[in-house]
Specification:
Length: about 100
């Protein structure tokens, strides 16, 4: 099975942080949803959420590149009961497990 930077074994369901291939240069935090044994690169998929502000209440913001179609509208203050509105996009991207860090 593939391993993380620290050498521990990567498993589906692990919470991770690291660079993903198609989601920009900043690290993402998410959950491993798929692992491909026997390869060193592009051997896993990570699911994560990306928040985009709602600037026009009649139009959704543009979806991130790796969005998979699932969205959810939330408000950003008082535990989601007030404040500015955001759309949460569920995204999935590919990565190499040896570039990830397991969290938790």
């Amino acid at each position: 099975m593939p391993h993380y930077k620290d050498g521990s074994e990567a498993k589906v369901g692990d919470h991770v942080v690291g660079k993903l291939y198609n989601s920009g240069p900043e690290p993402k935090a998410g959950v491993i949803i798929s692992i491909t044994p026997g390869t060193e690169s592009c051997n896993a998929q990570v699911q994560f959420c990306e928040a985009k502000p709602v600037e026009d209440e009649f139009k959704l913001p543009e979806a991130p590149r790796m969005a998979n179609g699932q969205t959810r509208m939330v408000q950003g203050e008082q535990h989601g009961s007030s404040g500015p509105r955001f759309v949460l996009f569920t995204c999935v991207d590919y990565c190499a497990t040896n570039e990830l860090t397991k969290v938790g």
